[in-house]
TrEMBL record:
Gene3D superfamilies: 1.20.1530.20, NAD(P)-binding Rossmann-like Domain. One of its GO terms (cellular component) is chloroplast inner membrane. It catalyses: K(+)(in) + H(+)(out) = K(+)(out) + H(+)(in). Belongs to the monovalent cation:proton antiporter 2 (CPA2) transporter (TC 2.A.37) family. KEA (TC 2.A.37.1) subfamily. NCBIfam families: 2a37 (TIGR00932). Residues 664-697 are annotated as: Disordered. GO terms for biological process: calcium-mediated signaling; plastid gene expression; plastid rRNA transcription; primary root development; regulation of cellular hyperosmotic salinity response; regulation of pH; regulation of photosynthesis; regulation of response to water deprivation. It is a multi-pass membrane protein. SUPFAM superfamilies: NAD(P)-binding Rossmann-fold domains (SSF51735). It comes from Volvox africanus. This is RCK N-terminal domain-containing protein.
Length: 697
C-alpha cells in the first residue's frame, strides 16, 4: 500500500509540473470553451425570441409562472416554528449547492463553483421559488465567509511585504476609485439625469469591486502571485478603506427637510474625523496585537487541545473584525489585520488549517446570497437597459485601470487584466444602494435595476479572467523582442529574486515565491517557456543569464539573491561567473548536475551549490525503507545520517579542492587540526550556526 501511495503521489507530481503548467502545486483552472459559449448564446437568443414572440412560447412561460405561483402558495400554507424554518432553509441551501455547483462546473462552458453558487441562490431566492424568505439574515452569516477569506490572505502576507505594496495600495488604488467615481457620476448625471449627490453615491458604489469573487477566481487560476494578481489585491485593500468614506457620505449628502444637502465644510469635517479614527484603530490593533498574539497562542498551545486552539483563532478573527467595525471600518479589514499579526508567529500554518473548512462553506453561502439578488423577471422586462449598463460598467472600469496602471509602473497588459477582474460591481453596492434609498439619495427603481446589473456582472468575473488570459496570449506574440525585459518595467524592482532557468525547478521555485508574494523575475532562453509564462502574467523574460546586459536589465544590482537552475553545466557556469564578477554582493544559489560541476561552480563564485541527485535519491530511498516496514522515526534517522555523511564527504572534498562546497556551508577548521580530522568535523552555515557531522566511516 505504501508503494502504491508513493507511486500515485509521484504520478500526481509529474502531472502537476508539466512544462505547460506554470503553477506546479495548483492545478490549472478549466479552460473556457468559446465554441460552446457561442452555441449557448445563440440558443439563448433563439429561446428569448421563442418565449416572447410566439404563442407556444408565451404559453410555456405562463404555465411555468403558474406552477411557481402554485408551489409558493402551497409552501406558504405550511406553518412551522421559527427554529424549524431556520433548519429547513439550511437544508435547502445545502441541497441546492450540492446540485447546482457540480452541474455548472461540469455542464456550463467555463463554469466554476462561483457561478454554481450564484445560480443556486437565484433559484431559491425571493425572486424565483422564494424558499429563502429573509435574505438579510443569510447575508449577515455569509459575510463571515468574506471575513475568513481576508483573514486567510493576511496569513499569507506580512506587515513588511504589505509595506512594500504601499504604492499600489494608496496610489493606484486611490486613483482607480476616484476616476471611476467621477466617470460613473458623469454618465449618471448626463444620461439618467440624477442630481449631483445621488450621482456621487452611485459612482462610488459602482467603483467598488467584489473582493470575494475576484480573489476566489485568482486563487482558482493560480494567479494570486502574478503582477496583475498583486495589483488587484492592492486595489481591493484600498477599496475596503474607501467603503468607510462612502458610507459616511450617504447621510451627509442626503437631502434635509428643506431640500438641501450637507455643506462642504460639514462633509470635510466628518471625513477628517473618520480618517483619524481609522488610523488610530489600525495602529492600535497592530501595536496591541504584536504584544498579545504570540503569548496568547503560546499559552493556548500548551493545553494541547485542538478545539480550544481553533476557538481562539475564531475569537481573534471575529474580535478584531468587531473592533474595526466599531471604528467605522469594515469587518473584512479587521480580519485582514488579524491575519497579518498571526502571520508573524510560528502558529500561522496551524491556524490556516483550522479555518479552511469554515471559510469554504461560508464563502459558498456568501455567493448564494449574492445570487438571491438576481431578479429574472426584472431582467426579462428591462434586459436592454441591464445589458447596456453592464457593458458600460465593464468597459469604463477597464479603461480606468488601463490608464492608471502604467502611471504606477504596472505594464499595460497587466493593467488590462487587472481591469477585467476589477470591472464587475461588488457586494458593497447592495449595502450602499439600500442605505441610499432609505435616505432619499437614490430612487428605488434605479437601485432595483442596479441590483441585477451588479449581480450579473459579478457572475461574469470568471469569463473576464479567461478573456484576460486570451488577450495576453494575443498581445504577447512570439516575437523575441516582446519577450525580452524592458528597462521601464524593471526600474521599480528592489530586493527581488532572480530565477535563471524556467524549467521544472524554476517553475516550482517561482510558485513558492508567488504564494508568499515575494517579488521575482525569471529568465530563460526558451521562447516557448517564456510565452507560456506570459500567458499567466508571470514575470518571465527571454534572455541569457550569462549576459551582463540582460542581468542589468532585470535589476541584478538591486536583487536580494539569484537562483541558477539552467539546463546545462556550461550555462550554469557562465551565469555564476557573470554574477560573481559584476554583482559580487548578490548571493547566488545554484543547482549542480554532479560533483565535478559543483566544484567548478563553487570556484566561479557560487554562494551555495546543491547537487541535483542527492535529495531526490534520499526521498526515493525513504519510500523504499518505509515499504520495508521501517517505522517513520527509523527512516528519518537513516536518511539524516546519510545526509550528514554526504555533507562530510563534500567537506573533505572542499578541503582538498579549496572550495566551500555543500549547501552553502563554509568549512571551518577545528582548533588544533585541519577540517575533517579526527572522529568528526564542524561546518557552520552562513549565519554562523555550527553543525556537527561525523567523519565518513
Amino acid at each position: 500500500p505504501a508503494a502504491a501511495a508513493v507511486a500515485a503521489a509521484s504520478a500526481t507530481t509529474a502531472q502537476l509540473v508539466e512544462p505547460g503548467n506554470l503553477y506546479p502545486s495548483v492545478p490549472s483552472s478549466k479552460p473556457v470553451e468559446w465554441v460552446k459559449i457561442g452555441a449557448v448564446a445563440l440558443g439563448a437568443v433563439a429561446g428569448y425570441y421563442f418565449f416572447n414572440n410566439t404563442d407556444p412560447g408565451r404559453a410555456v412561460v405562463a404555465a411555468a409562472l403558474s406552477m411557481m405561483s402554485f408551489v409558493k402558495d402551497q409552501l406558504s400554507h405550511i406553518h412551522i416554528h421559527e427554529a424549524e424554518r431556520g433548519l429547513l432553509e439550511t437544508i435547502c441551501l445545502l441541497f441546492t449547492s450540492i446540485v447546482c455547483v457540480p452541474l455548472v462546473v461540469k455542464g456550463v462552458p467555463g463554469g466554476n463553483a462561483v457561478l454554481g453558487y450564484l445560480l443556486g441562490g437565484a433559484i431559491v431566492g425571493p425572486y424565483a421559488l422564494g424558499l429563502i424568505s429573509d435574505v438579510n439574515n443569510i447575508k449577515h452569516l455569509a459575510e463571515i465567509g468574506v471575513v475568513l477569506l481576508l483573514f486567510n490572505i493576511g496569513l499569507e502576507l506580512s506587515l513588511d511585504r504589505l509595506q512594500s505594496m504601499a504604492k499600489f495600495v494608496f496610489g493606484m488604488g486611490t486613483a482607480q476609485v476616484v476616476f471611476t467615481l467621477l466617470g460613473v457620476a458623469g454618465v449618471a448625471m448626463a444620461v439618467a439625469g440624477l442630481p449631483g449627490p445621488g450621482a456621487i453615491i452611485l459612482g462610488g458604489s459602482l467603483a467598488m469591486s467584489s473582493t470575494a469573487v475576484a480573489i476566489q477566481v485568482l486563487e482558482e487560476r493560480g494567479e494570486m502571485g502574478s503582477r496583475h494578481g498583486r495589483a488587484i489585491f492592492s486595489v481591493l485593500l484600498l477599496q475596503d478603506l474607501a467603503v468607510v468614506v462612502l458610507l459616511m457620505l450617504i447621510p451627509l449628502l442626503a437631502p434635509s427637510p428643506d431640500g438641501s444637502s450637507g455643506g462642504f465644510a460639514r462633509i470635510a469635517q466628518a471625513l477628517a474625523l473618520a480618517a483619524v479614527k481609522a488610523v488610530a484603530a489600525i495602529v492600535g490593533i497592530i501595536a496591541g496585537g504584536r504584544i498579545l498574539v504570540r503569548p496568547l497562542y503560546k499559552k493556548i498551545s500548551e493545553f494541547a487541545n485542538a478545539e480550544i486552539f481553533a476557538a481562539t483563532t475564531l475569537l481573534m478573527v471575529l474580535g478584531t473584525s468587531f473592533l474595526t467595525q466599531l471604528a467605522g471600518l469594515s469587518l473584512a479589514l479587521g480580519a485582514f489585520l488579524a491575519g497579518l499579526l498571526i502571520a508573524e508567529t510560528e502558529y500561522a500554518l496551524q491556524v490556516e488549517s483550522d479555518i479552511a473548512p469554515y471559510k469554504g462553506l461560508l464563502m459558498g453561502l456568501f455567493f448564494m446570497s449574492v445570487g438571491m439578488e438576481i431578479s429574472v423577471q426584472l431582467f426579462l422586462q428591462k434586459w436592454k437597459e441591464v445589458l447596456a449598463a453592464i457593458v458600460v460598467l465593464i468597459v469604463g472600469k477597464v479603461a480606468v485601470m488601463a490608464a492608471v496602471g502604467p502611471l504606477f509602473g504596472l505594464p499595460r497588459l497587466a493593467s488590462l487584466r487587472s481591469g477585467l477582474l476589477l470591472a464587475p460591481g461588488g457586494e458593497f453596492a447592495f449595502v450602499a444602494f439600500g442605505e441610499a434609498v432609505s435616505r432619499g439619495v437614490l430612487p428605488a427603481n434605479v437601485c432595483n435595476l442596479l441590483y441585477v446589473v451588479v449581480a450579473l456582472s459579478m457572475a461574469l468575473t470568471p469569463y473576464l479572467a479567461e478573456l484576460g488570459s486570451r488577450l495576453g496570449a494575443v498581445l504577447e506574440s512570439s516575437d523575441l523582442k516582446t519577450l525580452q525585459p524592458q528597462e521601464e518595467e524593471m526600474k521599480e524592482l528592489k530586493d527581488h529574486v532572480i530565477i535563471a532557468g524556467y524549467g521544472r525547478v524554476g517553475q516550482i521555485i517561482a510558485q513558492m515565491l508567488s504564494e508568499q508574494l515575494i517579488p521575482f523575475v525569471a529568465l530563460d532562453v526558451s521562447s516557448a517557456r517564456v510565452s507560456v509564462g506570459k500567458k499567466k502574467d508571470v514575470p518571465v523574460y527571454f534572455g541569457d543569464a550569462g549576459s551582463y546586459s540582460v542581468m542589468h536589465l532585470v535589476g541584478a544590482e538591486r536583487a536580494a539573491c539569484a537562483i541558477i537552475a539552467l539546463d546545462t553545466p556550461g550555462a550554469n557556469y557562465r551565469a555564476v561567473y557573470t554574477m560573481s564578477k559584476h554583482f559580487p554582493h548578490v548571493k547566488t544559489y545554484v543547482r549542480a548536475h554532479d560533483i565535478t560541476n559543483a566544484v567548478n561552480l563553487e570556484r566561479a563564485g557560487a554562494t551555495a551549490v546543491v547537487p541535483e541527485t542527492l535529495e531526490p535519491s534520499l526521498q526515493l530511498a525513504a519510500a523504499v525503507l518505509r515499504e520495508m516496514e521501517f517505522n517513520t522515526e527509523e527512516v528519518s534517522s537513516i536518511v539524516d545520517e546519510f545526509r550528514r555523511k554526504h555533507l562530510a564527504d563534500l567537506q573533505l572534498l572542499s578541503a582538498s579542492s579549496g572550495t566551500s562546497l555543500g549547501y552553502g556551508f563554509e568549512k571551518q577548521k577545528k582548533e588544533g587540526g585541519p577540517a575533517g580530522a579526527g572522529s568528526g568535523s564542524v561546518m557552520s552555515s552562513g549565519e554562523g550556526t555550527p553543525i556537527l557531522t561525523p567523519a565518513p566511516a
